[in-house]
Amino acid sequence: MFFKVQVYRGRRGGEPKAFTWSDYRDFIRTVHLQLGTPVVWVWNNLNVHLQQELFDFAEEHKDWLVLFHLPPYAPEINPQEGIWSLLKQQPRGW
């Protein structure tokens, strides 16, 4: 599993509260480079996941990237649902 943590400090200095489409693009590219293989990326329906720029990026890199969108609500096929609840239980600062 690859993940990237974004620290939110109350928008000091204009920092975004969430990942932007370009943050996701850069993360996908980094994962591909680290694995050195084609990548199948599974999305839920978060609004940023549905931005045209990400579809364009996937189209430009269809030789190594496949995007798969989950149905709007499908916790039984969306493994990250259980992971986030576990992470939220951890004490801060680890």
Question: What characteristics describe this protein?
Answer:
two-stranded parallel ribbon; Nucleotidyltransferase, domain 5; RNaseH_sf; Tc1-like_DDE_dom; 94 residues; 36% helix; alpha+beta; Tc1-like transposase DDE domain-containing protein; single chain
What does this 3D model show about the protein?
The protein has 94 residues and is of the alpha+beta class. The protein has a single domain (12-89), classed as Nucleotidyltransferase, domain 5 (2-Layer Sandwich). It is 36% helix and 11% strand. It has a two-stranded parallel ribbon. Helix 2 links the parallel strand 1 and strand 2 (65-69). The two termini are 18 Å apart. The mean pLDDT is 82.
| Number of H- or I-type helical stretches | 3
Which class in CATH terms?
Alpha Beta
Helix amount, in percent? Answer: 25-40%
Oligomeric state, counting identical vs distinct chains: single chain
What would you call the shape?
A: globular
Summarize the SSE layout with pairings.
Blueprint: H1 21-35, E1 39-43, H2 52-60, E2 65-69, H3 80-89
InterPro entries: RNaseH_sf (IPR036397), Tc1-like_DDE_dom (IPR038717)
Domain Tc1-like transposase DDE: 21-90
Pfam families: DDE_3 (PF13358)
